[in-house]
Amino acid sequence: MSIQSSDVNRSSIVLFSEQAQVTRLKLTLRLLLSIFVLLLLSELYFTGMSALAIAMITSFIILTLLYYWASPDTGSVIAGMLLWSVAVFITYACWLGNGIFDTSVLAFPCLLMLAIVISSKLIFISLYVYLVGALCFFAVVHNQSLLTGAILFQGLPMWGRVFSYIIILTLFSVGVFLIFSDIRKRFKNILQKNAALESKLEIFRRRSRFDQLTALPNENACKTDLATTLQKQKTSGHILAFITLSVNNLQSTRMNYSHSLCDDALKLLAQRLTTFVNEKTTIYRFQQNEFVILKHSIDHRSISKFVEKVYQLSSQTYHVNDFDVSLQPSIGIALAPFDGTTMEELRHNSHLAMHAQSNDNKSDFSFFDKAMAEAEQKRLELTKALKGAIANDELVLHFQPKIDLSSGQIIGAEALIRWINPVHGFVPPTLFIPLAEQAGVITDITHWVIEQSVLACKQWHDLGFNKLCIAVNLSAEDFKRGSLSTHTMSALHKVDLPAHFLELELTESMLMDDINFIQKQINELRSLGISFSIDDFGTGYSNLGYLTKFNVSTLKLDRSFVMNICQSTNELQIVKAIIGMSKSLGITNVAEGVEDKETGCVLANLGCEMGQGYYWSKPLPQEAFIALLSAQ
Ligand code: C2E
Ligand code: CA
Ligand code: CA
Fold it and tell me: Whole-model pTM?
């Protein structure tokens, strides 16, 4: 838009610039000088040296001076002086001649025309008033028979008079023609620039409606299309499905391959989706991993069938640069007009449906329903309540013992947070930790957990259990502020607990974010004596590279494998392989979620070093945990 206005300004500058006005003024002056020369010659030839001839010579001299003074700075003054000199001259010529019957009266309209072209409104109006006044004056003068100069022109022959008419008419016509052809030329210039500008604007308009990578229409286009569609839909009675397809694993695909390869895969996905386009279906790309399909349909069932096909096609492998890349689509559907009547509402609700689908993992896609909106409302309320949880003393820590499988002794504990809110009651950490991460309060919670954990551990030591370690769960967000190591060290300092009694638990997904920044902080904490473990091993990417890269000391086998080892040989084999691998890397292994004696024995036989689970103890409050230690 800025380009548009600046170009228009430039065009008007071309037309009305001071330089253009001076050119026009000089052209007018040249023209008037020519008229004066011709009229003077005619006067000298027909009458000889008369008062009119002297007036013409004077005017000629004045106009010549004005011609040389004319510049961008003096343009408007010179234009005024020129017009007024000519006006005075014409009036004088009329006075010397036949008043309103004189040839010179012919110059009155021409002069006004000139005033319009070369000068300002003020000069035009004043001239107009002056000329009208002059005409009235001559009428009075005629009536009173006061016109002495009429004698001079009485002798003017017929041809002399015609000649004067022809000179004035021809030269004014030529002058006005030249001035207007100059204006026309400049207008043509403006029109050409306008056309160029229009085509540029069209390109911009197109760009603002289309996604650069996939050439699909974008969010802006969807917004306008949707507004028209929803308007039409009021009368058609059809359902409009707003289908959001998001590629879940885009980030990890970028990490595993490259950005350009990932972009190529997205282009292929866009091509596949384009095969569905018809008069009832339109595809858009909103952001990096978000595609939107607008689909008109008569019923819910046909939308389900359609989305099923979209899911099938988009989840098939993409062959890019000799690699087979898989993209994991997540699909959520909101139906207009039931689930919303604006793009914001439909998009929001399709996102809620999509997240519900990613969480349940059973179906390939999900339709929005009111329960999802209620759950979101609940999440919002919890988030609000969570912000005051620390200050209101609503958080407590429980400790779950870690057992040495060979001796059966407690060798440490994992701190697990509990939130009891006066309104919402007990809220499980699996629900509120993700909320705390989204709301930006997780770092404060982690700082609190670390402080309380090292304090609890110090109390065990003071009671004589001075070999026990404490493990604290971290969240990816905790690394973002960069204050983790300072805070952790000051917490340890405060209670005077050596750093090697503290272990921080990480998950693999946390290590995918900003690897270098996270690794720097981990190295710093490790150098101070704190150890690290990988939690839930086996559920994520199970990337062995991370174990060595981040120099972790412990690997915690996820409960989902451990709980089934007595029933499933597959899981037994997986657990066996992980234990073998961790041993060969010199990493301690801990089996989580051990609920019975049999599982504990199998794990011990497989060489697992430590266990944690309900079989030994549930997570306990500090007093109960101390009682358990004492009983041991
Ligand atoms: P996690 O770190 O994997 O913790 C183990 C979870 O398994 C705990 O659930 C624990 O109570 C449960 N568990 C332990 N043994 C057994 C067993 O034998 N059977 C069964 N069924 N469950 C067992 P909890 O306390 O509900 O915590 C859930 C998750 O919440 C934790 O998983 C952790 O990811 C997160 N979390 C808990 N406390 C904190 C915290 O202070 N900070 C952060 N960032 N996350 C935390
Ligand atoms: Ca844990
Ligand atoms: Ca775990």
Answer: 0.63
